[in-house]
Queue: 4 jobs
Job 1
Amino acid sequence: MITTVETRNIRGALLTLPVDDISQGLVLEDIDGLHPVKATIVSSSFANMDAEQYHSSRRTTRDVKLTLGLEPDYEINTVSDLRKGLYGYFMPKSPVNLKFTDSDGTVAHIDGYVESCEAPLWTEEPKMEVVVRCLDSDFVDMDETVVNGSTVSTVTNTPLVYDGSVETGFEFVMNVNRTLTAFSIYLTGSDGVDGFIDFAYNSLVAGDVLTISTIPGAKEVTLLHAGVESSILYAVSPQSNWLELKPGLNQLRVAATGAAIPFTINYTNKYGGL
């Protein structure tokens, strides 16, 4: 059950939408669009064969609809005052951030753009209906999760439990403390699917910081050396996978010969629905 809803506009102004408190003159009567969105499934059929063959799938955009009841204290303000104040947060085409707190303690947010904001003038029970189009349909944790580890020269895996409900990319950051020319990242997801990243470079040296991001829309490989950052995407083999954590238990191993080198895995829990 959603207990708190907050919205922040492009200017950074914060508005709390009361769920059961009318003292502000408005109350959040209904929310629609928090469930998992539909998926588009791509498949093909073949002559003289039953059924179809699966190719790929993707989840569509999300529409979050907020229904606000307007009940002003006429000694302080009017319905028109409330309506105009809300326009500052929900003017169509403006970017907006929605933050939700669930009764189980989950706090997640989502970015979107106001698609519509309707508030009929002549009605006995004044309301405002707002639709926010979210191009990325996933809700995201407010805080990043950081997992510390170090390279190994054995086949020992490190268990990594991912609490999100949909897959997520991550940022791998290695603080190099010795000369290193190659290493591999192995990941087995909770679905049993194996993936890897093979890295090879002329020479990483002590003091270098290597970052590999597998986050969709921000995939990159960068090296910070002597205060200068550069892209070294070519150091990752073409056969490598852009690894993602899957919901549940994942098994991670960063394999390199020689003494252990520390690294961190940084990621944010993502939820397909609240």
Job 2
Amino acid sequence: MGRLTGKVAVITGGNSGVGAATAKLFAAEGASVVITARRAAALEEIADEIRQAGGEVLALSTDISKPEDPERLMEAAMEKYGKIDILVNNAGILEAGLKPIDRFTDEDLDRIIDTNQKGTMRCIRAAAKRMQSGASIVNVASVAGEKGCGGAVYVSSKAAVIGVTKHTALRFQNDNIRCNAVCPGNILTPMTTGSAATAELDQDMIGAMATHSNLRTQSCTAEDVGNILPVLVAKTGLISASDFSFVANILLFLASDESRAITGQVLVSDFGAML
């Protein structure tokens, strides 16, 4: 019997990286997973992998930056499975170049806040009203939101996710609906290694970050983030794009009943790079 047997989990950004690794892990642990992202073809590839492994999955193409899509997503999950036990808010985007506060663009501000902050909040709102006692919400934030190490807009969006995590935990404490956040360090995913993320990196920001963190610390993979808790005492180093189990295992722990006493907490998983 898996750790999530009988549970229904909605996972945003489920077509690659941490989201895909988490969806596979949750399905392997017995959950029925609802995965969503904008790229339908990539989403279906992950869904097919889950089905071939014997898992139960519903794939829905949505864009959480659109005000109506989070509500549509949760309603579809309810129609298919009749309940929502777990929400993993993983969908997120970056600005190009690590632009600092004096160089960000209004285009970046609108685009990133619409997805990372507004999209996350709308997903929580849509899911929470359909959840029952014992449900769990897990938000994938970033060490950038804790330490300021990144582009100004991305940092502010992830700081907002940390804040709304604590608010949500407080709001639903009496309903026994938990909310926690995971703050991975640098994770090697298509989003963080693509041309948009690495083009024209702001050298002032790189220099500032280098004085406060170990930029030579190995990066994590999405699987690393997913598996965080079980391996915290046993593994160190960076997470790679082919192994997102670290983060996925952390998400599994926070989604499961094993963490039923934990809410309103923010777990940083960056291998000590920002100590």
Job 3
Amino acid sequence: MNKIESRHRLIRSIISERRIHTQQELQEALEANGVLVTQSTLSRDVKSLNLVKINEGDSSYYAMNTIGGARRDIPDHLRKEIIDTLDDLEVKMQPMTHFLTTDKTVAMRTQGVGVLTREDAIRIGAVGPHARASGVDIDVRRDAPYTSYEDFDFNIPVVDSGDVFARVLVRVLETYESMKIVRQAVDMLPEGPINLGNKIPKVPAGEFVGCHEAPRGQLVYKVVTNGGPTNHRLSIHVPTFKNAPTVETMLKGNTVADAGLIVASIDPCFSCMDC
């Protein structure tokens, strides 16, 4: 193990043991363990490890993904904060939803614009909200449940018109369904261990394919492992790969002024296509 790998392992260990609020605090914790590092090097480490800042009340702290469960439990006060935030968001969403569905200017600019028929959506292979806005009733969370989606009661919004308005409407309706799922998840949190501890099984050599419903649609990972601690090969097939080819069909018969609106309506992630 080289110096960088050793330092990264130590950073993970420190963050898992206690809450670190600033880079300076992390730097001091490393020094206490005999590791001297500059702020610029530490900034690169934070980026390389994909550390994120979690806001809680008036403070924030570093966090990272934990394999085999969660790093920390969710205390009761945080559960209440989550529900209160959802309540506030739902109130704020209502006037926006009303405006979207009743405003004549919105209707003129979006209804009948950039239509993708159900037949074309299926033929080209559209996924996610883009497909559901064209009447294609698909969603991996329901059709092939993973994690605990089978435990939740939620609807899959489907609209038949296939235009820009439909694609926006589906996403708005899915916001309400997402809030419903989060409420159920908070209410159904089980008691007991929050992770596997040191009992994480060794990953065997082989090929594995995983699929889940991302905000833009079906996201597929193919992992090839050699039985070691790192992946031999990783291939990511993002939703925009499937949704982008529909743009040519949707642009036909529309004005140049509508082009930007039509492209934006599929919520493309062009940088994702570099994967």
Job 4
Amino acid sequence: MKKFLLALVLTMISIATSHAEELSRPVVQEYRLEAGGGTALSTYLSPLAYDGKVFGASAQWTKVSPWAPETLIMQFATKANMRDYLNPAHTASMIGIDGMFTWGMQWRRRLPYSLQVTAGGSIDIDGGCLYLTRNGNNPVSVNASASLDINASLSWRFRIGKIPMILGNEIRIPSLGCFFSPQYGETYYEIWLGNRDGLAHCGWWGNRFCIDNLLSLRLDFGRTAMQLGYRYDYRSSWANSLNTRLHTHSFVIGIIPHGLGIKRKQAINSPLF
């Protein structure tokens, strides 16, 4: 009986400790809708640049590290886009879908005047396709890549009335990795038949450059928070005499369930500030 009671007490202590740890390391969840426009160029499909509308959804989960909650944060993010473009004469359309997953860690430092800076790295996997409706041969261009990224951010916490706010800028730049590109004029049927030479390429800033920048304002209402922002996304690659470029400008609106965590006692471990 004594052993049973001892085991029960230890279990309750373990549960309480785990719950306290979760409270001290809250997860900030951000869910966003994005809408805007941009241009697309894929010389595998056409020598012309197409422009049009882009709609997307993204999410991000941020939590402080259990090893160094004051100086280290972890992030997982995902994003998906739907693209609808027209050629300059508006006689042909190009549609596309793409998605991205990234996980990383960043070192952070709180500065005077309610500023915070972070810097670190992440791993990302990116994939998608463009479909040119007027092409009979080679109507689809597939994009796929994996890379190590450089991440950084700068944020400023302030208050208007009783509403705490965070104005911040987050930037992600892929550095080293690999990406897929078919040979010039090669069809995917030929690849399926076994012609797979020169499809994978080592990616660096000389043949693949991308930048993802999000400028946003977060407003904390306590139990929930809102995010408003602007995202600039640029992706480009050069391989096998083929050039691919995607420019996107998007307005961002998002919701953050349970708020930013900067009003509560555990704000010292808030992953955002």
